[in-house]
Every structure is written in C-alpha cells, then in structure tokens.
Amino acid sequence: MKKTGLLLLICISFATPLSALVITEHQLAQTPLPISSTASVYYEGKIILFINNNNGTETLPLIYNGTWHYGTPLHIGITGENAIVCNNEVYLVGGTYVSTGKLANTIEIYNGSHWTVINTSMPMPVYGAASLGYSGKIFLFGGVNSSYALAEGIASDYSNIIQVYDTATNTWQVLTEKLPVGIAFASYLFNGSVFFMVGGSYGVHALNSVFAFNPATGLVSELAPLPYGLEGEGLAYIHNELFSIGGMVFESVIHPSSKILALEGNTSWIYVWNMSEPVYDMAYVQVNSSIYLIGGYNSTNIEISNVNLLNFVYPPSSPRIINYASGNQWIFVEWTNVSPVYYLVLNSSAGISTILTYNNYYNVTDLQNGIQYYIYVVPHDIAGNGTPSNTIKLTPSTIPNQPVISYKLGNDNITLFWVPGYNGGLSILGYYITLSNNTYTKTFWVGNTTNFTLTGLFPNDVYYVRIIAENPDGNSTPAMIKFTSITIPHISASMVRIGNKAYIKWKTTEPANLTLLVYLNGKSIYNSTVSGTEYMYILNSYGNYTFVIQGANVAGSSFTEIKTLYYPTPVIPNYNISYENGTLIVKINESSYFKYQVLVNNTQILLSSAGLGKIAASPGLYLIQIIVYNQLGNYTKAVIPFLIKPPVNTNTSSTITISNISISNTSSSSVNHPIVLAGGTSTKAPSLNPFIVYSLLALIIIGAIIIILKK
Questions:
Q1: CA 432/CA 218 separation, integer angstroms
Q2: Residue 704 has what pLDDT?
C-alpha cells in the first residue's frame, strides 16, 4: 500500500487533559474522483493533492481552496512519490513510473503553473518513503528500493537509510544514522522540532513502531509503540499531543479502523474518539486544530472521494483581562478573545453576580459606589468551561476631572505640562497621553507626573494630544490640544566669488532668524543679522575666509560653513643679479603673500630670509629663473639669461650687476629677459671679426634658452 505525504501546520498550546477533548466531524465537498494513497501538501492556503489520471499517464495537481480544480499536469505518471514544502516551494521526489514500474530518481519543483526537473541523482531511488522539509533540506526516510511489482513482501527491499537533499547545493548525501528497521508506507508528520514516523510496513509485516527523528541533531529515537500493527492512518499534533486517526489495523483480524488514538505523555496510546466511518490510505492535512481526511478506502475497502473535516476542540485557554475601568456606578472590563462564550463574574460584599456575554468585553452599570468588586472571566465552548482569567479589583466612584494642558515646542518634540483637575476624591494613579496625526495613534502611560516630552515628531505635521487622568476607579474625559510640530532649521548655502566680492546664497528648511559670521584666518571679523536669501561681502584683506550662516528658531539652531581662499596674483618681484669674483648673486625683494624659488641652469639655490641667494659660477651662459607662487598654487616666472665672459687678463677680476625696475606678469606665465653679458677688459683687440663672434654667440645663447624653456 502507498501512503500520503503531509504538510503539518503546527498548533502550539499548553497541555490539556485528553478527557476534556471534544472532536467534531463535518463532510466537505467531495473530490472529483475517488483517490487513495495520494501525496499532498498544504501550500499558500490551499490543499494540493498529486493524483494520476485514469490511465496513469499523467500526474495531476488536484487543488482545494473551497472548491476542487486541477492544476498543470506533470506529463508522466508517478506513484509512491513524496510531496514536500521546503523554502516555500513544492518539491516532488522519487516514486515509481506508472507506465514502467521503474523507480524515479528525480526531484521536480511545482510552482503552481509549471514543473521543473532540478536533480536526477538520488543515491537510492525509493517510493513509499517518509519525507521532511527542514532548513533548506529534504529528508527521505526508508522506502522501497526496488520495483513496486516485486517489492511487496520482500523485506530486504525495505530501506532503513536516511537520504538528505540540500536545495542550496543541489546535492544528495546519506546520513550515518539509520532507522532501526527497514520501513515504508509509514504515516508521518513534523511538529516543528520532532519528525514522527508511525506504523507502516516491513515486508509483509505491519509495524506498530513509533520513531522520532530530531533534525537538529540527526538522531532517531523510539517512542511508545502502538497497541497493534497499523498502516494507512492519518496523524495530527494538537495541544502537545500526537494523534493517530483511522488506518488499517493488523490484529488477529485485519480490519479498517475508525478509532482516534492519542500518545499520552509519550508513554502510552489511549483511545480518544470514534469517527462515523472507518477509513484508511487517505490523504491527511492539518491546518491549526483541524484535520482534513481526503479520499482513501472505507470499511468495505472501496476507494472513496469523501472529504472529512475533524475539529479538535479543547476547553478554551485562560483569557487575560487587558483593559478595565470604573466610574460613577459602572465598571468596564475587556479581555483577550479565546472562546465564543464568556461568564463575567463579580464578587463583592453585596453577593456574586454572573453575566453571560458573547463579546470579549462588558460594561456593568447600576453598581453601588464605594464597594470593591473582585472580577474575573470564565471562557466556555462546546468542550465546557475553560480556565478562569486573572482577577482584578475595582471600586466604582466619581472619575477625576480632566487636566489643564500647556506646552513648549522643541526640535521634533513637544514638552507637555498640565495642572491636575479634581481627583474625584481618590488619589490620582497617573496619566495616559495619546498622540495622533492623520496616519497613526500612540498611547503612553506616563505615571503620576505633571510633565512629559514626546519625541520623534515629523516636522510640520499637525498633531493632537489627549491627556487622561486615572484614579483607582476610572479615567477622566480627555483634555486635548492641537499643535504643528517644528524642527531646527537646516541651512544649505553656496558662494560665488568675483574678485574681492563674495556673493553668498542660502536656503532654510524652516523659518529662522539668520546671522552671518565671517572669520579671517580663524579670527572673527564680522557678525551681523541678515535677511532674505543672499548677501554680498567685500574681501578687504588676503587670507583664509570662513563664512558661517546660522539659523535659529524656538526648536534650536544650526549652521553651515563655506570656505574660500583670497590671495593676490603672483608677480615677479624687484630683483638684482650680480657676479663678483666667481660668485653669482641673486637678490629679490620678497613679499609675505608669496613663496619664491630661484633656479640657476635648473639648479635651485637657497634663499636667505633677506631674499639673497648665491652660487659659485665661472664664465659661461646662465639662465636664471625666478618663480613666484601664491597660497592657491598659482605661479608666474621670469627667465633671465646671464652671460659671464672670461677675462682677457687673468689678473683682472670681473664684476657686473643687473636689476629690474618693475616686472609684473599674470599667473602661471614666464618672461624672458634680454641677454646680459658680463666679463673683464682686454688690453688687446681681438683679431676675429666682432660681428661674426657675437652672431655665433647669440645663436648659442638662443639655442640654450629654447632647451631650458622646453624643460
């Protein structure tokens, strides 16, 4: 026999005695055709069964969401497969091909509209296995690992291995942990932490074993066995109890069962309830505390299309009183909603009163002021009375008057102040503050204080504040104010400088009082209130300027900064170049706004603090470069050719001096000065033609200038 797959929706609750359990049974719309041993899942609010068409050539999704309809078929017939929900997708794993009887080693994904084969490398193809989807992995437990036609009754073909498919890596592995015995066609479910495998078969033997697998540890353990061998049953896990539903019982007489058993305290199975008809080999799906039994075989072993819904109803859990108040001759109580019917009980010195209500709240009127009432709630459903709620104490009396509110706005916050009104004759316990706008409402309990700051407000939103005073018996009517929140003004600014004029523009997110502060080289030189959105400032001195625009309103202040550098354009200074007794001397008049560099034939010479530089020289042509930088990195330079002629008489020393009067150049430029000749006198006239000599010399000098300038 083949068994169904299962997706269990976990129902978590506190343990309740099984004797208090009531099970109801309802017949739903039948399936379009009789079905049995069908893989099934609960996916995206729908029950999906995977059935075969009449001739077994296709596997069809049969979908139930109040009515039955078919989905996209898998164009091959498979039986004994496993349907698993993992990673919020439906996987179809293993089974046998109906047309050939061969084992299927495939994994396919069904997304509701089409099928996709993702793996064909199952280590041991099986059908009739138990399956679990957990933490991105698919577990297969046991199953029959040979042809279906040959496997019935051959125990050696019943596997006890645990195969695991990793959806992240698309790979299989076999765990070292094994089942105690080869097993197939077991019923199974997962309760969120433990995977149960109940009954099933091993060869010709029906099993009464109950195995538990912990996917977190990978270990298998055995629980209390069933009272008889069982196959084709349904399983449920409700209120921390494992239930076995129906199935085929293997005792002295093999027969279908209508019994529901429960594993009480993990120690023994006890009888709980009888269904109206026996059923086995049905699909079963649990949704909360309801079990759907779909198809299967009835007491005469006829395949059916019934859909039976079982509701497991326990007495309701204890409600919790969450809101209460009292006033002038009245008490209001509200509690968590756990059942369809409630009894509100009031116990006082005047006696006990019980009120029946179908709501989870009640307002009791015409009470006597000054009497203390002990109040609790008893829930009720078809299983009987549940556990009573917590007990509260209330004393009706006059409620306090509303307070008188004042406030102070801050940066995205408001500080509330209030003067308490009349306390109603009882001590004020504290205050509720409700803050609301057009999108949300929040309520704060602030205790017995007379001021409170609400933060995290959205700027320029309209808010309402309600303050309610509470004494032991109730709340005052709310005192209310309306306000528009504010925030610190945020300023953005830009600047354009033309010459010594700085044009500053700004924007503010909020109305604000504006102040312009100007700093030169870190020292404050200007502080003035400004208006509008722009301002022109004249830069009277050179240096590093910082402009600060500061805005302030009642929420606070903020500022933004703009920095600019204002320095003069570099100019060539007055200079003096001389040659005396083997030394070339350069003297420049330095300015504190500039930095200077002097190169003689591309060799830098050091300048003293007085702007004086010296370098040893012999007769020849020298190109002297004077480079001037300002602090912005702009520069200009002058190129001065300087020729030292050798003295005709070695006993005669040569001296020469040149200087400029005033040279001014634009930044990043250079100036070539005329050739200057320096040398001694001669007692004899040269025999060469002077015109030829000076022409050759001029050509040499011009060539040298061109080479240096290219560098």
A1: 53
A2: 55
More confident residue, 670 or 689: 670
Sheet holding 575-580, edge to edge: 612-616, 583-588, 575-580, 655-659
Residue type, 308: N
105: nearest Cα among 118, 114, 88: 118
pLDDT in tens, 304-319: 999 999 999 999 999 9
Confidence of residue 404 (pLDDT cuts 50, 70, 90): very high
Question: pLDDT tens, 435-489?
Answer: 999 998 999 999 999 999 999 999 889 999 999 999 887 899 999 999 999 999 9
Q: In terms of DSSP bridges, do strands 259-264 and 89-93 run parallel, antiparallel, or are they unpaired?
A: unpaired
Q: Measuring CA to CA, which residue among 249, 245, 276, 275 is closest to residue 261?
A: 245
What is the spatial distance between Cα 216 and Cα 134, in angstroms, rounded to a whole number?
9
Per DSSP, the chain holds a count of helices (H) and strands (E) of: 2, 64
371/226 Cα distance (integer angstroms) = 58
For residue range 217-255, what is the model confidence (pLDDT) as tens digits?
A: 999 999 999 999 999 999 999 989 999 999 999 998 999
**Strands 96-97 and 115-119, sheet pairing:** unpaired
Residue whose C-alpha is closest to residue 107's, from 95, 118, 96: 118
User: What would the mean pLDDT of 280-295 be, rounded to a whole number?
Assistant: 96
Return the number of other C-beta atoms located less than 10 Å from residue 637's C-beta: 18
Structure tokens at 599: 């190169």
State how beta strands 676-678 and 635-644 pair. Answer: parallel
Asked if residues 647 and 600 have their Cβ atoms less than 8 Å apart, the reply is: no
Q: Map residue 633 onto helix, strand or coil.
A: coil
Q: Which residue in this structure is represented by tokens 């051959």? A: 154
Distance of CA 50 to the CA centre of its chain: 37
| Farthest-apart Cα atoms in the chain, separation | 151
Please report which helix (H) or strand (E) contains residue 692, including its range: helix 690-710
Cα–Cα distance, 144 to 202 (Å, whole number):
9
Q: 496: closest CA among 544, 551, 536, 543? A: 536
DSSP 3-state helix, strand, coil percentages of the chain (rounded to 5)?
5, 50, 45
Dump strand ranges (E) for 257-400: 259-264, 268-274, 283-287, 290-294, 307-313, 321-327, 330-335, 341-348, 351-357, 361-364, 373-381, 384-385, 392-394
- What mean pLDDT is reported for the chain? 87
Nearest to 708 by CA among 676, 670, 678: 670
Neighbours of 567 (CB within 10 A): 16
Strand partners of residue 326:
331
Question: Are the beta carbons of 120 and 105 closer than 8 angstroms?
Answer: yes
Which pLDDT score, from 0 to 100, does residue 7 have?
38
- The C-alpha atoms of residue 469 and residue 476 are separated, in whole angstroms, by 5
Which of 680, 691, 669 has its CA nearest to residue 644? 680
In angstroms, the CA 298 to CA 301 distance is 5
For 50, phi then psi, to 5°, come to -115, 105
Beta bridge partners of 644: 620, 678
Residue 400 to residue 477: CA distance in whole angstroms: 8
Specify whether the CB–CB gap between 504 and 562 falls below 8 A. Answer: yes
Mean pLDDT over residues 574-603, rounded? 91
- Spatial separation of the C-alpha atoms in residues 423 and 477, rounded to whole Å: 12
Q: Give how far Cα 513 sits from Cα of 350, 525, 551, Å.
A: 68, 20, 5
Residue of 279, 302, 303 whose CA lies nearest to 292: 279
Residue 656: per-residue pLDDT = 62
- Alpha carbon distance, N-terminus to C-terminus of the chain: 97
pLDDT at 204: 86
695's tokens:
């022409």
Average pLDDT rounded to a whole number, residues 181-209: 95
Read off the pLDDT of each residue in 319-333 and give the average, rounded to a whole number. Answer: 92
Three-state secondary structure readout of 52-103: ECCCCCCEEEEEECCCEEECCCECCCEECCEEEEECCEEEEECCEECCCCCE
